[in-house]
Structures are given as structure tokens and as C-alpha cells.
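Notes from hallway chat w/ T.B., transcribed later so I don't forget. T.B. wanted the structure written out for a chain they're using in a teaching module, and asked if we could keep both sequence and C-alpha cells in one place. Agreed to drop them here.
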Amino acid sequence: MSAVAGAALAEAPLASLRPVPRPDLVGGAAPKVARLASPSIAELFAEARLGGRVGFVVADARTGVFLETHEPELALPPASVTKAITAQYGLSTLGEDHRFRTRFIATGAVVDGIVDGDLVLAGSGDPVLDTDALAGMVAALKAQGVRGVRGRFLVAAGALPYVRTIDPSQPDHVGYSPPVSGLNLNFNRVHFQWERAESGWTVNLDARSATLRPPVTVARMAVATRDVPVYTYADAGGVDDWTVASKALGNAGSRWLPVRRPDRYAGEVCQVIAASQGVRLPNPEPVEGLPDGQALVVHSSVTLSEITRAMMRYSTNLTAEVIGLTTSARRGVGADDLHGSAAAMSAWMRDAYGIGSARFVDHSGLGEDSRLSTADMVRFLVQLGPGSVLHRHMREITPQNTRGEADPGLLHRIQAKTGTLNFVSALAGYATATDGVPLAFAIFTGDTVRRAGIRPEDMENAPGARAWAQRSRWLQHQLINRWAGLYGV
């Protein structure tokens, strides 16, 4: 193993194991204590064949005593484990019952079904607003008798700072690095679908949801006769101008693409839906400030608790950034841009929990420059404690056996957050071992040298990254299996 389990590591003791307590003497004889067979750390590292570096810590979650460590103070990219920090940042500040509101505001009275002034679609950052919810708002507007607007149709997305893309190093076309604003629709993605026709391909872009598929013009797609690059992008005066390589399409398929102007996107979709319901709206106009007026319709999201559970399960980057930015705004610090808000979260972690290694560049973990040590991650988890609000919002993860297969028959439970970037993998949370002993753990693996060598066009599907991630996940689960056997019996 290069830089993971070299000769020095193979020869040195890698772990200080907790001694097995000697049982009370019974009848003058000490019964033998059986210890579960467990592979050594060096053996696990060698079989994983990761390269790069590994840091891990496992602790008794009740006392905070470190039970086994390897490079505990090594600061590595935490990837989406960052979302666990963001979840606590948001839940502790905003509260589990916090809801995001999206409103239709009228700047004038409604006279004979016409808004005598402007109609404003105003967001507060709702990260789970979708086309169906927007259609429900339009239906509620129509139910109040509104049929049109005498003034303008304004779109107000200034409740949160506009972020063009979460991580500028990512390719333009990846949906996991969308923009962020105070008005977000369908995770700020448009659905691109293609099908081979008699001559070329038929392509469609729409804002689909569970029941609707309104077409959009704020994004357009052209098929180009070429092999590479697969996609090109240009900003054509506020319109996302895409091309796709014909050789990459095949007969049919679809994918989600980011929209770079979420305010224009939400405004156009709203206008199309309104027209289908008999409500005539002018062309949408983005506006920076929020005009005064009367709220005619208010749509409230599900609770922050529900939103956080979904974020922890599906690892949605937009959700994390919205929660982080909203929390920083509520706290009155660092809310002017994404990096400032991430720095404010780093400072909060240091001040509230004494975590010195925390250095975040965003709230989702997508940026590779974030750093955190496994020792500090475990100290954070121990301070919150098993059964805490964060613990309750973590995803249940099925343990894996030595073949890397999910095995619910293993006698321990894992509630944790995963994190994956190219040649970076992380897992942190709580494990309840065989006898119910709660363990807090963090495992960060990273080959940052290999990651730095990825070409920009390969970032979405870097050669070797998927197999590397599988080996890292195998190592993570074998470490947890080891700990459950050593410290939970």
C-alpha cells in the first residue's frame, strides 16, 4: 500500500485495543473470555488497495473515549459528510418545524379578477418546491378569482444570495452542481429527453414533475455532429444554450441538466401553468428587492425536519446549500455569499463544539477544498450524543459482509452519513453494537493526488473512481464490523 499501509505501518502496532475485563472468579476458577476473531487494520488496508491516505476514529459515544484510531488528526475532504454538520447547523438554529414560504404578492387590489398593480412570485429559498406545488399555488390564485394582471409579473429570488454553481470546478452539465437562489424549482434542473427520429433526433426540455410536463424556453438544446465534447454550454442573454454530441445520444434517453437562472425558470414555468388554468400573466421579470403588497397565496414547504431527513438520505446538494445559507442569514453572519456562509458554519463549529480542524467552502461537501479530521468529527458526534436530533435524522445503513454485500443479518445497526467525490470517500455516524453499546465513528479516505490528475471533461465519470469508491466502502464496513466485534461484546 502506498501511503496507507507501508512497511512502517505494517511493523508498528496500529491500534490500542481496549482490554477485555477479567470476570469475577467463580468457584475459584476464572472462566475463559472468548474474543471475536478480527482482521488487523494492516490486513484490511492491504486488501482495500486504496492508495492515498486514511483517517479513522471510533469512540464510545457515551464517554467520548477513543477506542481505536488511525491518523485521527489528519484533515481530509469530508465530502457529503459535511451535510451532517449542515443539518445540525440548521436544525439547532431554525428548529425542526421551520418551513419555507413561497408567496404570490399583489402590489394592488384585485378588481374584477384583475390585479391592479404587479403580481410577485416571491421565494424564501424552498429547496423542495416543484412544478406540482407551483401549479397548486396558481390554482389557489385562480380560486380567489384572479384572471390577470394589469401591471408586471415579477419574480423575487433575493431572499438568498444567487450562486451560479455550487462548485465551479464541476462540468457545466452536471445536475448535482446547480445554482442556488431564493427561488428554486425542481432542484433548479430541467429535464432533457431525446429520441431518434427519421432524420436526426427529437429533443425536448421541460420542467416535469409527478403530474405535469410544462415546456421551457429558458433552456434550449441543439444536436451537433461530433464525438466530443458531449455537451457545450453558453449563456445566451439569460437563456441556457446547450449542444450535445450526436455520437453520445443513442436511440433514446433522458437526463437532468442545471438551469443557471432559476428565477427566470420558475417565472416561465409559472406563466405556462397559469395560462393552462386560464390566468394570463405577463412575461416574468426578475427583481432584486421584494415589493410591498398583500400576500394572496402562501405555499409552505414540509418541515425542516422532513427536508433534512430527505437530504441525509438522498444527499441533495441544493438542499444543503439552502439550509446553510438560510441558517447563516438567521444568525446574521456570512450570508452574503456561499463561501462566507460556509466560513460562518466553520466558525460556529469551532465556537460551539471546540472543533479546530473544520474548514468548509460550502454546506454540501461538493467543494474539494473543505477539510475536517476524523477526530474532530467524532468529538462533534459524541457531544451531540446518541439519540440526539442529528442522530434521529441520519439514514439507516445496512451493514456489509466481507464480500461487500448488504447483510441485515449482521448484529449491529448503523445510522450515518456517507460522502463521495472522485477518489474521496467518507462515512460518519453512530453504530450500535451487539450488546447495545453505542459507538461514534468517522472514516475518511482520500487519494487527493489522483483526484488532482482528473481531466475536467472526466470529472463526472473519472476512470477508476467508481471501483476505488467501492473498495473504500468495503473498507469502511469492515472497520465497523471489526469495532462491533471488539467493542460491542
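Follow-up for T.B.: Residues 101-300 form a domain with the D-tyrosyl-trna(Tyr) Deacylase; Chain: A; fold (CATH 3.50.80.20). Might be a good example for the class.
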